[in-house]
């Protein structure tokens, strides 16, 4: 399946979570077996082409696509978690949200020095979570030069912000507008 065909499998839900927002819902994509498989195949190929030695995915939807791509490539998967979810000593990064802050954590022993880590997630909007993940993975010693997304919402500037942080961003599809 081509990225254009896959784009047709993403449901748009108007006015969610608030009026004026066009929510891009991937549950219809992951609920389609051939569509999910094709999405993972595309992401795995892109990760391989980027020289990935490990795949990192942010909780929670990054786990779906990132872990599947890691399995396909037989690479380690690094879960980037919300606070308090890992049973070992962690390192973390706080980052700004529209209304407040949040935090991401990883087990720093899950990365070797200079390991090429490619981030995989479902969607990039403003890029705050992805930027925090890049910072965190680099703090742990990883080399993070590439981030892959199923969906890019370019009008929200996340890909641009990651690019400014020295990360090449690739997405299977884009949706203009919010």
UniProtKB/TrEMBL annotation:
Name of the protein in its database record: Adenine phosphoribosyltransferase
Pathway: Purine metabolism; AMP biosynthesis via salvage pathway; AMP from adenine: step 1/1
Ranges where the Phosphoribosyltransferase domain occurs: 33-141
Keywords, in A-Z order: Cytoplasm, Glycosyltransferase, Purine salvage, Transferase
Subunit-structure text: Homodimer.
Family, per entry: Belongs to the purine/pyrimidine phosphoribosyltransferase family.
Listed EC numbers: 2.4.2.7
Catalysed conversion reaction: AMP + diphosphate = 5-phospho-alpha-D-ribose 1-diphosphate + adenine
Family annotation (HAMAP family): Aden_phosphoribosyltr
GO biological processes: adenine salvage; AMP salvage; purine ribonucleoside salvage
Alphabetical list of InterPro entries matching this protein: Ade_phspho_trans, PRTase-like, PRTase_dom, UPRTase/APRTase
Pfam families assigned to the protein according to its UniProt record, in alphabetical order: Pribosyltran
SUPFAM superfamilies referenced in this protein's UniProt entry, alphabetically: PRTase-like
Domain of life: Bacteria
Cross-referenced CDD domains: PRTases_typeI
GO molecular function terms attached to this record: adenine binding; adenine phosphoribosyltransferase activity; AMP binding
A GO cellular component annotation in the UniProt record: cytoplasm
Function: Catalyzes a salvage reaction resulting in the formation of AMP, that is energically less costly than de novo synthesis.
Localization of this protein: Cytoplasm
This protein's record includes keyword Cytoplasm: yes
């Amino acid at each position: 399946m081509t990225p254009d065909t896959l784009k047709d499998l993403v449901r748009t839900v108007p006015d969610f979570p608030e009026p004026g927002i066009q929510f891009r819902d991937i549950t219809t994509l992951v609920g389609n077996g051939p569509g999910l498989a094709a999405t993972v195949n595309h992401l795995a190929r892109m990760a391989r082409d980027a020289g990935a030695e490990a795949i990192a995915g942010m909780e929670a939807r990054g786990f779906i696509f990132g872990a599947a791509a890691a399995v396909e490539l037989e690479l380690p998967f690094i879960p980037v978690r919300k606070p308090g979810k890992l049973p070992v000593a962690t390192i973390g990064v706080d980052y700004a949200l529209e209304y407040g802050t949040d935090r991401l954590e990883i087990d720093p022993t899950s990365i070797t020095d200079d390991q090429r880590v490619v981030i995989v997630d479902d969607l990039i909007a403003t890029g705050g979570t992805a930027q925090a993940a890049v910072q965190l993975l680099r703090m742990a010693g990883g080399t993070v030069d590439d981030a892959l997304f199923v969906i890019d919402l370019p009008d929200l500037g996340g890909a641009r912000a990651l690019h400014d942080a020295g990360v090449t961003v690739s997405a299977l599809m884009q949706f203009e507008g919010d």
